[in-house]
Amino acid sequence: MMLQTGNKASIKSPVRGFSLLEVMIAAAVLALGATLIYQSFFTAVDSFNYYSALLKITPWMDEQIWQAQNELSRPGSGANLPSGGRLEINNKVVDWSLTYHALDQSMNLYQIDLALFWPQGARQVKLSRSAYAIHTQE
Amino acid sequence: MRFIRKNNSGFSLVELLVVMVMLSVISLAIYSTFNNGFKIWQKVNQPLEQQDLGIFFDKLAQDLSNCLHSANIPFSGSLNTLTIPTLVFSPRLKIKSLGSVDYFYDPQAGFVYRQTKDFSQLYNRQQESPVLLLKEIRFFRFEYYYFDAEKQTYLWQEEWLSTGLPLAVRVVLGFNDSDENNQFIRTISVPIGA
User: Fold this and answer.
1) Which residues of B are less than 8 Å from A52 in CB distance?
2) Which residues pair with B154 in a beta bridge?
3) Which of A19, A39, B36, B142 has its CA at 20 to 30 Å from residue A100's CA atom?
4) Sequence-separated (6 or more) residues with CB below 8 Å from residue B129
5) Closest-CA residue to B190 (of B140, B143, B153, B145)
6) B187 interfaces chain A, CB cutoff of 8 Å
7) Strand partners, B102
8) d(CA A116, CA B50)
């Protein structure tokens, strides 16, 4: 009788498993951790895609600004500047618009504004760049 | 006797099934997290050719911005090569001094190199080993912008042999893995070009 009671008491406590509540809390913590890790993956991929597109778009923007400056600063041009369009970079459709206006009365100094828009994940990216052009009379 | 039998009783089928399902769900979640993480890590760490391209354009723009008239170092250019009289770092004097910068494209290897020579290196016909700037280039060409006084128009040409400086230099290039339409164009003005 004595032996039975003593053994029962010593074995009962280590064999006791987890309660349902403990398991649920552990699963919830695990799910939260996994969600946060996944979120960081999405952020990493989004940043990578954005900068990959930016690396391709930057030389294109520089070139477009040069073209506009050239058209406006060299005599006998300025009329055939494209006002906008669409290009495809990294399987993304990028819309762009180019505007210019004279800053003085004598039409010598111009401001050029170039703006690009493209969808990046859930958001819409807008990138803009401005430059001046001086019309030189030769 | 009662105690031994009770202790030996294993899991019930329902308990076992629940544990197995839970274990599989949790291990699947952990596995997919690691797997996706590894794939994303690989993708984000792959080298992008445009990184080198930005550095190449910046170097070229800096050399052309510092370009100057020099009787001894002529500005010369063809489709695949370009020599600019400009400021270079002199290894002997340890300062920036007059010299020349060569850019050249190797069509067989698809490489673009930059080589600097300061004035003493030019005089002694010494040269440092060229620096590789771009790899995997499928096509590459320079174009030169100038004002044609006879025709009174601005024109592009594919080589520069005259003594003056062009108004601008244009680079057109494409990488091996990109498609035909995906080409990079960059035009850089020469400030004292005429």
Assistant:
1) 48, 50
2) B147
3) B142
4) B115
5) B145
6) yes
7) B83, B115
8) 19
Q: Which secondary-structure segment (H or E) carries B61?
A: helix B49-65
In sign, the C-alpha dihedral spanning B31, B37, B40, B46 is negative
> Nearest C-alpha of chain B: how many angstroms from A116?
17
Give the other-Cβ count within 10 Å of A90's Cβ.
14
| Closest to A114 (Cα-Cα) out of A101, A127, A133 | A127
Q: Which of B70, B104, B67, B57 is nearest to B87 (CA)?
A: B67
B27-85 pLDDT, tens digit per residue, is: 998 899 899 999 999 988 887 877 889 899 999 999 999 998 888 888 999 999 999 99
Average pLDDT for B175-186: 77
Q: Which of A71, A62, A87 is nearest to B186 (CA)?
A: A62
A52/B26 Cβ within 8 A: no
CB B60 within 8 A of CB B81: no
Segment B121-134, tens digit of pLDDT: 888 888 778 999 99
Question: Is B3 part of the contact surface with chain A (CB cutoff 8 Å)?
Answer: yes
Largest CA distance in chain B: 118
Exposure of B189 in the CB half-sphere (CA atoms within 13 A) = 13
Whether A98 contacts A81, CB under 8 Å: yes
Contact A93, A86 (CB under 8 A): yes
How long a stretch of residues is chain A? 138
B50, B53, B187 ranked by CB distance to A66: nearest = B187
Query: Scanning the structure block, which residue is given the tokens 């025709």?
Result: B151
Question: Is the predicted ipTM greater than 0.95, yes or no?
Answer: no
State the Cα–Cα distance between residues B82 and B115, nearest whole angstrom.
Answer: 10
Site from B53, B180, B187 to mutate, A interface, most A CB atoms within 10 angstroms: B187
pLDDT at A131 over 90: yes
